[in-house]
Amino acid sequence: MKANDFFRGLFNPFSRVAGWPALLLGLCIMALSSVVGYYSGAVCDGVLDVHMAERPETVTWPVVFLYPLISQACLVVVCSLMALVFTRNFRLLDLAGTLTLARAPFLLCLAAALFVSSPSLEEVMADPNALLQNGGFIAFLLLTILVEIWVVVLMVNAVRVSCDLKSGKLAGVVIMSVVVAEFIAKNILAHL
Amino acid sequence: MLPVNCPSCHAQLRVRKMQCEQCGTEVSGNYELPELALLSPDEQLFVLRFVKNSGSLKEMAALYKLSYPTVRNMLNEIILKLKSYESE
């Protein structure tokens, strides 16, 4: 039972944590992720994006803090507007808090990037196998995929618990929110 | 626990007879169970605690050690159930 509770907590902590505690915890983890990202040269530059910068000098303090904050703000605004189509029975604070906490696993990717060096674009253009020969980079990619799946599951549970949506409506709101928020966030970040 | 469904065919049970333990008087009839009695024991306890906490979901969340939206969703499910009993 304890193992079950642990895994349930990993994928749906929101039955116990929502509102202000989730928002504050989520923001603290985002801030820590930004600091780690600065030193690892990786940035969360989108709703579900984690990228290692090709040129480390582009990863500045404003970039590591603003990019994920803007992306997350876009997601919360878009998701709340989408959810309003189906229900008014939710608090914006719960949705904002749970969605922000749902980003927590990205810290693992940013921390892993501390130990990984990605091949440069020139290296890959000269020899495409350079990517496959870099074991650390492959492991980082696999970790990123797993973390992305984990974050998506958390986002679905965040919307499910905060807005009491189920099945088709839930899937529709999450998918549309991620797509639209990603589009808006990328456009905003491109103009920064 | 008061049974509300038939153990054979799961139809809703009705009250036929009630008895006074003090004087042995029996009252026979055909009475419907109140809607609240049709809820599960956990749901009845939830409703009881909700009323005792003056309808505060915040206090219910603290009592159950669950998040506010989770407790609100539990209440929504009970409301839906009670509404379905009304329409039957």
Give a short summary of the structure.
Chain A is built from nine helices and two strands; from the N terminus they run H-H-E-E-H-H-H-H-H-H-H. Chain A is mainly α and 192 residues long. The N and C termini of chain A lie far apart (49 Å).
Structure description:
The complex is a heterodimer of chains A (192) and B (88). With 192 residues, chain A is mainly alpha-helical. Chain A contains nine helices and two strands, in the order H-H-E-E-H-H-H-H-H-H-H. Chain B has a two-stranded antiparallel sheet. In chain B, 45% of the residues lie in helices and 12% in strands. The mean pLDDT of chain B is 91. The radius of gyration of chain B is 17 Å and the shape is elongated. The interface between A and B is medium-sized, with 16 and 9 residues.
Main sheet record of chain A: 2 strands, antiparallel
What is the beta-strand fraction of chain B? 5-15%
What is the count of β-strands of chain B?
2
Please work out how many helical segments of chain B DSSP would assign: 3
**Which residues of chain A sit in consecutive blocks of at least 5 with pLDDT less than 50?**
none
Strand content of chain A: under 5%
Uncertain spans of chain B, ≥5 residues at pLDDT below 50? none
Shape, per Cα inertia axes of chain A: globular
Average pLDDT over all residues of chain A:
91
Helix/strand class of chain B:
alpha+beta
Strand order of the largest sheet of chain B: 1-2
Structural class of chain A: mainly alpha
- Structural shape of chain B: elongated
